[in-house]
Amino acid sequence: MDLNFLTIAEAHASLLAKEFSSEDLVKACQAQIVKTEKLNTFITRTDDLALEQARAVDAKIARGETIGVLEGVPAGMKDIFNTRGVRTTAASKMLENFVPPYESTSTKRLLEQGYVLMGKMNLDEFACGASTENSAFGTVLNPWNQEYVAGGSSGGSAAGVTSGQIFYSLGTDTGGSIRQPASLCGCVGLKVTYGRVSRFGVDSMASSWDTIGPFTRSVADAAAVLQVIAGQDPYDATTPPVEVPDYSMNLGKGVQGLRIGVPKEYFAEGVEPEVREIVMAAIKEYEKMGAVVKEVSLPMTKYGVSVYYVTMPTELSTNLARFDGLRFGHKPDGEVADLLEYYRKSRGEGFGAEIKRRIMVGTFVSSAGYADAYYKQALKVRTLIIQDFAKAFTEVDVLMAPVSPTPAFKVGEKANNPLAMYLADALAIPPSAAGVPAISVPCGFTKGGLPVGLQIVGPMWSEGLILQTAAAYEQAMGWKDMHPVF
Amino acid sequence: MQLTTEQVKKIAQLARLELTPEEMERYAGQLTDILTYAELLKELDTNAVAETSQVTGLSNVTREDVVGAPLCTPDELLECSPLPKDEHQIRVKRVL
């Protein structure tokens, strides 16, 4: 049996039936990681820890104890989640040697469910980028074609799942960093409602935008992982006391009568015709399944990138101010005269080009004399984007659109043009601005053989409905069973 | 908005970033491009629009003032520092 491309649910069933052990799964993953090493998905591998965790689960199974659905199934973790005793770099030279002394809430909850950690996945430095080319540990390559990027910032998390190295992973999505790599790599990626999953113990990027969610090979698996990590956390005051429903309950219920909105701005100029066609064909499938499709308008869409690249750098520069090289971080080489020079050298040497660029933008647009024109204006337009979505959701239940205006682009293609890279998230940013949940589910391939993702967006706290909607399509189509060959 | 290298130098000073002359020149151009793009926002009349700085609607989230179980020890936190330690304190360069 090829173990590498099973879903979590399939692996779990076989563990229960004793067809193979958790240790077998770890070894199959290790072999695949070696075979596909060129993809550069891992920053740190935790082989010994994984085997130890797997053997503990196997012992439980041998004793006849019950195990949870994630128990003993190998996972990867974006290297921005603090994991006690396991180096956590945020793909930055700044944290090259940082070993956190505490656990993030999400990984703690997974640990309590018996998760098996294969290692820490590559990303754009501090989750800033759309291609992982900003990683201090090299670029992640697309599993379908290694001349192309895997997307970002959670590129390692997505490519690891797609290439059969791990069964699932967690990523962070601030302005598309889960959905875009999921779309470009061809796996399921869920961005939750802001506040649904605790951000505690995850390096902050833009605190009013940051969310955490799963990458999986099936929609049902995404529901299973979300079930474990969702919910209020006393360590994150932005997690509201909203009940966590059973996310798997409605996965088989279909989409009869579902009202789907197709926002015309998401199919406008700038979206590649091939992407448009593939996504429209997916929406047609929904009509066949009994959903009702209508065109809607989200007129503020074109302002999303501007709102994001003013407010996010402001929050980022504030969050990254804690990196002073004293309590943790990079110690500059050679002698420095005083504390101020130490800060400047630590940060100048420790941060990569994109991080410095964003710190500079954030510092400028929030500085005296410019804050009203840039920062405050962006906060107001963010309100207008929220109103756009609120209005649309009075007419329809969910929205459907492409995740990314293009399929994966070539390594190096946008590396020297920051603005072109920013536009890669033009269709992923507006839902993030509004705080609403959205998923990327595979919906086909370009003629060149690159995957395309369908974005399904719902109102606040509608993860259950989004998963149900995505599951109906996944079950009707065969994309889930397409895997890259190495 | 055209940024000069002089302005970039000032921003870098505020942000505590040491930049090379080449970096400053490159950032002056790139920041100008980014800010020019962001000026798209100015075409909207937002006089009557409220600012959004968070989307949860939560405010003043408090808890009982009790000490919880520690997540790690003070010494483990000190271990994270790349600098020498003295009597449970981090030794830093002079401030003044």
Question: How would you describe what is shown here?
Answer:
- The complex is a heterodimer of chains A (486) and B (96).
- By secondary structure, chain A is an alpha/beta fold.
- Chain A has helices spanning 8-16, 22-35, 47-62, 105-112, 155-162, 179-185, 219-229, 273-288, 304-319, 339-350, 353-365, 372-395, 418-423, 429-434, 463-476; strands spanning 42-45, 74-78, 116-121, 141-142, 145-149, 168-173, 188-191, 211-216, 259-263, 292-296, 398-402, 438-445, 451-457.
- Chain A has a domain at 10-260 and 400-424 and 437-481: Amidase signature (AS) enzymes (Alpha-Beta Complex).
- Chain A contains 15 helices and 13 strands.
- An eleven-stranded mixed sheet of chain A has the order 1-3-2-6-8-7-12-13-11-9-10, sandwiched between helices.
- In chain A, strand 9 (259-263), helix 8 and strand 10 (292-296) form a beta-alpha-beta unit.
- The longest helix of chain A has 24 residues, at 372-395.
- Chain A is globular, with a radius of gyration of 21 Å.
- The relative contact order of chain A is 0.13.
- The model of chain A has no long low-confidence stretch (mean pLDDT 97).
- A two-stranded antiparallel sheet of chain B has the order 1-2.
- Chain B has helices at 5-14, 21-38, 74-79, and strands spanning 85-86, 89-90.
- Chain B has a domain at 5-43: Glu-tRNAGln amidotransferase C subunit, N-terminal domain (Histone, subunit A).
- Chain B is flat and about 55 Å long.
- Chain B is mostly helical and 96 residues long.
- The longest helix of chain B is centred in the N-terminal third of the chain and has 18 residues, at 21-38.
- At the A-B interface, helix 9, helix 10, helix 11, helix 12 and helix 13 of A face helix 1, helix 2 and helix 3 of B.
* SSE order of chain A, one letter for each helix or strand: HHEHEHEEEHEHEEHEHEHHHHEHHEEH
Q: Compute the average pLDDT of chain B.
A: 94
List low-confidence stretches of chain A: none
Strand content of chain B: under 5%
What value does the Rg of chain A take, in angstroms? 21 Å
Q: Label the overall shape of chain A.
A: globular
Query: Distance between termini of chain A?
Result: 17 Å
Q: Segments of chain B where pLDDT lies below 50 for 5+ residues?
A: none
Strand content of chain A: 5-15%
Helix content of chain A: 25-40%
Largest interface: chains, residues each: A-B, 73 and 55 residues
Structural category of chain B:
mainly alpha
What is the second-level CATH architecture of the domain at 5-43 in chain B?
Orthogonal Bundle
Name the average pLDDT of chain A. Answer: 97
